[in-house]
Request: fold
Amino acid sequence: MNQIKFAIPGLYNHFDLTKKIINFKENFPDAFLDNVNIGAVYGNFQYCIWDGGRNFASYNYSSLEVIRSTYEYLKEKNIPLRLIFTNTILEEKHLSDRFCNLVCSICEDENNEIVVNSPLLENYLKTYYPKYQLISSTTKCNILSESIKELDRYKYVCLDYNNNHNWEELDKLSQEKKDKIEFLCNAICPSGCPNRKEHYRLNSLYHLSFGKNYCIDCAITNNTLHPDHYNQKNTISSKEIQEIYVPKGFSMFKLEGRTLGRTEVALNIANYLLKPEWKDFFIMLCIE
Amino acid sequence: MNFLFPNEIFYTDIITNLNHIFQNHQDFLNFNFKPSFLNAELSLPFNYVNGGPLNTVNGNDFLDASTINLLSQKNILFRYYINCANPFLVKADLQDIYTNLILTEYENGSNIIVSSLDWYTKDLLNKYPNYKVMASEDYFLYNDKPEIELYSAGFKCHKKDLEEIKKYQIPKNKIWINLVDSCQTCSSYSKCKKEEQQAQIMFSTNSSFLNCNKFNFTMLTIKQFIELGYTNFWFDFSGISQSDINSQLIIFLNTFIKPEYQFQADLILRGLQK
Reply:
């Protein structure tokens, strides 16, 4: 059976939950779907000006000791640590940021990954932190042909979710290219949202200005547990992964959730990674 | 006389209550003091630039821009002395977004920057010309050829350093003397403070001061300094935990309040009585 990997949230927010999930997999391997693995744990240590994808209701600065212990824990578990450095409007002056560089220097090894959007930052990372594997961000909002052109340059390319079901093009890809594509399964944004790119730009601005609020028209997001969410055109269900994507040769999937609550993250993990008969027990364990 | 009070963010209640005494209970005081504003140090949480003790930066929620904006304007009672005095800063730190945000929000022509490095002071003054700068208590340790004319807001110092800095011929009205002789006489003080500042700039929570088992502060009396012609004083709260309210109160009571009024003043400072 083809193995599939999920990148899951919880590198900093809800890291205790992430540990529970990893320990659960170690102690109850049969609870997980047979072909499912944790491919990476992603997120950011706060407060990180290179972040851009998500804003948070509050921030609590993480310390050197927290960053080190997180890195060491995931290294011991042999699970890639994935940093999200997707700020879309970085300038040269932002590259010297002491905290972001500290995070990079502590977590740098060949197993770990950074998601990028800005070419400026990408070049900087290649020069100063060359061990990281780079991943192209969904926040680029690329059309599929542009994403396909990027496949040679990155470990993975996370597609714009509007391309999740573009089988006319996806079916044409070689297996080598399919192995490098990552699908965002449960985006909170509605498909075809015309404000998405602008939303990411404003999120980036928010980070660089340390949380000055902004307004955007139609910044509609959906609760990922709402029944309607699974009817969104861009959503990929667990069933679709197993019955369509895996047989077609795709193996890398990302679960959204950096800004979701603990219970919602646990439920998403249960829905995508676990066998049905284990879900209730797992969720009880996670929220206790 | 002038007093520079500790980190305003964390001591607002006590200092505000103390000001209530200054304004309304002159008979409690050891000397005449009815200020029109209060000088207060400002070291925002997790601003690694500040160079103060880690107990002012760790374990606190990060302050976002709106909060900083609100704090900078909330009370005209305070003149802020913004600590930018970590001696391990390098050129790239001038670009630090958080520090620049704070300095932008607080630049009102009356607030002050506290710095320990001449090159950093010059660059900040170029960028923020409406500030005056005060030299930190570490200043003479880190500048081979001190450019003392940069520090129009004066020089913080410890009692033990007064003799040493005489050679710079700084007028006494530019010198601010620390009234809390806590760590300065300890043989490990310089090493300890350096470790603290290095930890801070690395976002570490490993605090030399808070891990110290020798810490014991001593109050210095104002009288001895007034007789020597000094009129500016500050309170070094390094090593005093923010939760150690008793130590904080003892320092203020002994400095400002006549013994017979200290019990009543103690209640006012704790917010238990007006």
